[in-house]
Each structure stands twice: as structure tokens, then as C-alpha cells.
Amino acid sequence: MLGGEGERLPGTDDADGDDRIVCHVDMDCFYASCERLRDSELRGDPVVVGMGYESGEPHGAVATASYEARAYGVESAQPISRALERLPRKAVAREDPDLDPAEAGHYRPVDLDYYREIASDIKAILHDCADRVREVSVDEAYLDVTDRTAWTVVNGRPLAEGYARHIQERIAREVGVPASVGVAPTMSAAKVASDHDKPDGLVVVEPGEVRDFFDPLPVEAVHGVGPVTARKLGEMGVETAGDLAAANPDTIRERFGDRGRTLYDRARGHDDREVRPTGRPKSLSRESAFTEATADADRQRETVAGLAADVADRADGKDALYRTIGIKAVTPPYDVNTRERSLPGPVADADLVREVALDLLAEFEGDQIRKLGVRVSNLQFEAAAQARLDGWGDEATGAETETDDAPRRSSTDDQSSLADFDRRE
User: Fold this and answer.
1) How many other CB atoms are found less than 10 A from the CB of residue 280?
2) Cα-Cα end-to-end distance for the chain
3) What is the CATH number of domain 283-402?
4) Please, which residues bridge with residue 106 across strands?
5) Is 16 helix (H, G, I), strand (E, B) or coil?
6) What is residue 278's predicted lDDT score, i.e. its pLDDT?
7) Sheet hosting strand 47-51, strand order edge to edge
8) Could you say which architecture CATH assigns to the domain 208-272?
9) Three-state DSSP class for 345?
């Protein structure tokens, strides 16, 4: 089998060890792709997978929307009720003479156990194709393939491109789901490249071309720049990655600290991070941004309930217990508010995550909210030590309000629990 352990594809013996070759593999609309794998009748039709959603119900939030569904305005983390306004269920449209079945979609509840089975098959391929793999999530990973291929150009294309296509085609052939792959000499450039031509894309950024690749892209494309940072950079006249690369590094560092220097370096194509396997997470979180800030309490509660279900499912899949539950609410203009509650002992209880998250959300009743997040922390991975709660205190903690990308530390016994609440913004 090509690409097996320790094996190189033909023509790659002259790989230059001085130039790393990093692949970022990102599965396209992974949950929807898995549902299509299970039911071939879904192929080509809009597919929406909901978290906290049950078949036929209007509750929950969108976990994944296929590209066909996105064309109707269905977005990730959108309430299912809002998605249904834009894209009715296929089954309902077939029975309603006022609806066109061709303008309807399929809705499915999240089935994480099934998705993990598919992901395990994908990860087996990735580990077979690279000696070093960093698994970021169930549907995303970095691979260092420096020892498997080369940047040498043959017939107008680098050999690394052929190797990346080999990985992509193995996933499609052996598993049956599409993936986008970015290839570059750095992790940050590889990630941006994988996002550049979705779905089923393959983008290669060769050594010496990273700066030119980045320059015309919006500054949000730089890995680590989210909406808050992008807004602040925009206020400084920095609109593109090229603007950031050309900026005075001292000014950027003064405004954003050491993180600013990291973003500046990445915009210039500099990123010396190595692909290393990840350890156990310290927390698990999921966030959702509204298209426009809303004070609709039902929308807010529905979104939080869906996020809570997803986070609890992720913790369950990792055999993780947690003793801190928190939420994040971003209010206009970009104020980041966090609240959390510590429990008497570690638990694994999806209903409790939802109940606590909704209780913490109540403090923001009537407020306009741009983004919501749910997080569990203080994780433990000894499932046998699972604690059963008889009751828990009802004091909310961590009432700090921030206007930057990450909130300052809260006042609970877990002093670092919200300091890095989903820094992806």
C-alpha cells in the first residue's frame, strides 16, 4: 500500500529536510457527510444536522449545514427554528402543496458515536500517511509529511502536491467522505490553505510563496485573528494580511502584546511550531455567533440548549467528567461576558449542563447578544470516579466583563477555567 509506515512514494527520495511539509486535513461538513454516507438518498440535497435536536421537532441548533443548505441561509449554530424558516423539511414539503420539495432539506440529529466511528477510519489513514499527526478535533488534523515526500517540482508540480492528493483520495476511496487539504511549510499557512478552496479542495503553498499567498487575503484569514481582533486591527488601518505583514511590529505588539507579534509573524509566513500530538484537553467548549445581535430570549435559550447538548456529548465521547460549567455572552459592541458555576464534584450529566447554562444565561435577559458559548472545565478522565450530585449551590461566579478576545480570570476555585474560553473567537 502506498504511503505505509516508513514508506515513501516513488520519486521522493530527495526530500529536503530543511523545508518542512505540513498538511492540514479538514473534513468538509463532516457530520452532514457522515449522514450521506449512511443514507445515499441525501446526496446532492441540502442536509442539516442539529445538536439538541430530535427528529420532527423545531428545537435545537445547527451543528453542520451542507453547502447546499448554506445556499438557503442555513448557518452553523443557528437555531433549528430559524433554519426551518429558510429551508423546510423535505418530508413536510412532500405533503404540503404550498411547498416545493426541491426547495427543502433533510434534517438529522447529531449522532456522535457514529461520527467517531467514521473519524477513527480517517485517522487510521492519516497516521498511516504521516509519522507525526496532531489531531485537533474529530474532523481536523495536521500532518508532518516531510519524511514522506518533497517540495521538488516534477512536471510543473511539487511532489508534495501529489502526496497530499494521495491522502485526500484515500479518504474518499476508503471512507467515502470528502476532505479539503492545505499543504505548506508551516502549520498556520497549511490551515489557511485548506480553507481556501472548499469543498474537496487541495491548495499548495510552496516555500517562499507564503507571504505572497497571504498578502491579498482579509486579515481574518491569518490563523488566530477572530472578529474582535480584526475589528481592532481595522481601526488601525490593517484590513488585509498584507497590511498586517507590512505594519510596524512594535505598534502591533504594543496593542496586542506577545500575541500580536505572533499574528504579525504568521502574516509574514513565519511559524516555527512543530506538529506534535495533543494531550488531554483542559476544557471543552462550543460557540455560536448570530448574524445580527438579538435580544430574542427564545432564540438565545434555544442556542444555549443546543450548545450545551453538543459540549456534553463531546465530553461523553472523551470519557471526561467536569465540575465547572460556564457560558460566554458577547454583547455589543464586542463586550465578552463570562459566567460559570462550580459543582460539588465531577459529573457527566448533559441535562445538568443545559440546566446550569440556561440558568446562567438568565442574567442576560433582555440584552442584545452577538455570540453565545457553553463550556465545561475542571475536567477529569477517570470515568470510574464519576460523582452523582444530590444538589449543588446556585451562586453564579465569574462576573467579569471584558472587551477583548479573551476574558480575564474569574473568581472561582478554577482560576484559569475561563481565561482561554475558546480563543478561536
Assistant:
1) 9
2) 41
3) 3.30.1490.100
4) 47
5) coil
6) 77
7) 61-65, 47-51, 106-109
8) Orthogonal Bundle (1.10)
9) strand
∠ CA(220), CA(223), CA(227), 5° rounding? 35
Is residue 68 annotated as a catalytic residue, yes or no? Answer: no
- 377 has which bridge partners? 283, 324
Q: What is the spatial distance between Cα 249 and Cα 247, in angstroms, rounded to a whole number?
A: 6
Q: What nine digits make up the cell of 17?
A: 529536510
The third-level CATH classification (topology) of the domain covering 34-112 is MutS, DNA mismatch repair protein, domain I (3.40.1170)
Single out the catalytic residue among 75, 85, 135, 140: 140
What pTM value is reported for the model? 0.69
Cα angle value 71/74/75 (rounded, 5°): 110
Mean pLDDT by 10 residues, the chain (425 residues): 38 48 96 95 95 84 94 91 93 85 93 90 93 91 95 94 96 95 96 93 94 94 89 95 95 92 92 86 83 91 91 86 94 87 93 96 94 92 46 31 30 29 35
> Where are the chain's structural domains?
34-112, 208-272, 283-402
Of residues 273, 164, 246, the one with CA closest to residue 236: 246
Decide: 348 and 386 in contact? Cβ < 8 Å: yes
